[in-house]
Amino acid sequence: MTMRGLFRGTQYAAMLALAGLLALGACQRQEGSEETTSAAPTDAQREAEIAAEQLAALGGPANAQQRAAYAGEFQAVGALGDVAAGEGAWELRLLEDYAQFSRPGLGEDGGITSEREYYEHGMRVSAGPLTITLMAQPCMLPNGVEEPYTASVLFEGVAYQGCARQGVAEGERPTWASVLPELMPAIDVCLQRARSRPARVTFASAIDEGQVSVRIRESNSSRYECIADAGGGAATVYEPLSDIDRRSGEGDPEFQRGGSRPGSSCVTEAVGREGETLGWLIADRC
What whole-number distance in Å separates Cα of residue 80 and Cα of residue 85? Predict the structure, then answer.
């Protein structure tokens, strides 16, 4: 073979090797792309994306007149599915210091509210795991009734859309104990830390990063705040509270776990989602 033929053969072999490497790289990129696109976003990722879109729609800071449109309490409703087919509707009660989100057959969620954030096109506030957005825009309910506000409740990666109005209907109002069953794992862990028993829970609410804040009044009247895992894994904090450190709604009601019925006329049985007895709720109005 001549030198020229040898050189051409070497060039051809090199080109074949380069083509093979390029094909392998393309396959690897395609496989990596498929793995990336096949991974479904988490609830947290979906919530972050939706929250960013909602925040952009709210515009800049609100003036005094715009802030006034979102003062007070609100009640909102929205369809979970086909209401006519009996799939029901969700309901939100937004108070000054607490919010309760109810879904038929799916329980209740909520918590104490953060400071309200006011914008030129609406208001946003968080309450436990909920992010609530209200906008002063006409909203039509499935029954044909028009409400003056649109409402969105962002929860577990889903934005529940509905209509809202100012004011909450008279009747039983939500309290911190409205979501008691979901708080029980953390409450049980915290009650085990009490030294003077029987102890009562005066307030509990979900906080950030999968934790629950539980306030306890021991039988000697000393008060403590406990921070525990929402799943009941462990209590990381159990520290005394001063007499002036009280949350809005704290103590109304108090919750006593299990045992015999307390000797008070304002006592109701606390039950779980399956109808099991959790303990007793003692209102402070008696």
Answer: 11
